[in-house]
């Protein structure tokens, strides 16, 4: 029995939040380091790289959350474990972004 | 007229943000209390916080895309170029994590108030992070405003028309 009192949609979207936050931070580095290709494509897609970045983040969050909920991954994660995953992801994301621009 | 519109939009962005932070503080406090009588308020507050954070994102994003270019050039040429190269760059990108957390909070709150007690630490941590990150965004915004101000002052002291 792996009922940690969380529910698959809550777990799926919490994990998606952690993963998407990290991928968003990595995309910052990738687009800044590849201005002629990645950044140029992001500007061409919507007219502004930040708008494209936002669309990608939101779509990824929604799709990944739904997929993770269906797959029911991380069923042993408790509320404290899930909180640690979210917090860890947020701290690492912040360090990647701030570290890159410092 | 366009300048007034730009300034009003610029003021609306942190105002919505502060209100979203306050709702997150309230959600945190109500979750610690964690009584059945709090559940209605918790649901309403978490939804209000999400709406306010999205308004902050949309209004701030519109201003950033449409109006920020002129300020950016001014800041980069002024005495505080780091107001853009560090504070704005970090703010505009880290905001996505804040937006995701604000979007997730009502999902967790509705789960908690439906009897999924394991979500209590998740609601507490996510609402706390919204407060911390939200305040960091407000602080970064203050640096960006000051970067524009000192750039304008430097331009004036050189006898130039901004």
Q: Could you tell me the number of beta strands of chain A?
A: 0
* Amount of beta strand of chain B: under 5%
Tell me roughly what share of residues is in helical segments of chain A. Answer: over 70%
Largest sheet of chain A: none
Average of per-residue pLDDT values of chain A = 94
Classification by helices and strands of chain A:
mainly alpha
The first-to-last residue Cα distance of chain B is 18 Å
- Which segments of chain A are poorly predicted (pLDDT under 50) over 5 or more consecutive residues? none
What class do helices, strands and sheet pairing of chain B give?
Answer: mainly alpha
User: What fraction, in percent, of the residue positions of chain B are helical?
Assistant: over 70%
Topology, element by element:
The complex is a heterodimer of chains A (about 100) and B (about 160).
Chain A: H1 8-33, H2 35-46, H3 49-71, H4 79-101
Helix pairs in contact in A: 1-2, 1-3, 1-4, 2-3
Chain B: H1 2-33, H2 39-66, H3 68-77, H4 82-113, H5 120-157
Helix pairs in contact in B: 1-2, 1-5, 2-4, 3-5, 4-5
Jot down its keywords.
heterodimer; A: 102 residues; mainly alpha; 4 helices; elongated; B: 162 residues; 0% strand; transmembrane (chain A); membrane (chain A); transmembrane helix (chain A); membrane (chain B)
Structure description:
The complex is a heterodimer of chains A (102) and B (162). Chain A has one domain (8-101). Chain A is mostly helical. Chain A contains 4 helices and no strands. Chain B has one domain. Chain B has helices at 2-33, 39-66, 68-77, 82-113, 120-157. In chain B, 86% of the residues lie in helices and 0% in strands. In chain B, α1 (2-33) runs antiparallel to α2, α3 (68-77) crosses α5 (120-157) and α4 (82-113) packs antiparallel against α5 (120-157). By secondary structure, chain B is mainly α. Chain B is elongated, with a radius of gyration of 19 Å. Chains A and B meet through α1, α3 and α4 of A and α2, α4 and α5 of B.
């Amino acid at each position: 029995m792996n009922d940690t009192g969380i529910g698959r949609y809550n777990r799926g979207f919490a994990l998606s939040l952690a993963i998407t936050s990290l991928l968003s931070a990595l995309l910052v580095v990738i687009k800044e380091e590849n201005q002629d290709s990645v950044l140029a494509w992001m500007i061409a897609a919507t007219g502004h790289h930040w708008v494209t970045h936002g669309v990608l983040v939101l779509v990824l969050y929604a799709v990944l959350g739904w997929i993770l909920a269906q797959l029911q991954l991380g069923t042993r994660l408790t509320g404290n474990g899930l909180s640690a995953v979210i917090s860890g992801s947020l701290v690492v994301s912040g360090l990647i972004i701030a570290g890159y621009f410092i | 007229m366009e300048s007034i519109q730009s300034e009003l939009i610029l003021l609306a962005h942190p105002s919505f943000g502060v209100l979203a932070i306050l709702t997150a503080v309230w959600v945190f406090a109500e979750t610690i209390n964690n009584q059945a009588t709090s559940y209605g308020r918790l649901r309403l507050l978490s939804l209000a916080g999400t709406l306010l954070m999205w308004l902050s994102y949309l209004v701030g994003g519109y201003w950033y895309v449409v109006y920020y270019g002129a300020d950016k050039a001014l800041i980069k040429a002024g005495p505080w170029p780091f107001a853009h190269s560090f504070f704005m760059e970090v703010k505009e990108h880290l905001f996505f994590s804040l937006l995701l957390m604000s979007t997730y909070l009502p999902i967790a709150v509705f789960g908690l108030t439906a009897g999924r007690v394991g979500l209590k630490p998740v609601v507490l941590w996510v609402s706390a992070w919204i407060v911390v990150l939200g305040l960091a965004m407000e602080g970064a915004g203050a640096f960006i405003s000051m970067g524009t101000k000192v750039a304008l002052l430097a331009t004036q002291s050189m006898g130039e028309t901004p």
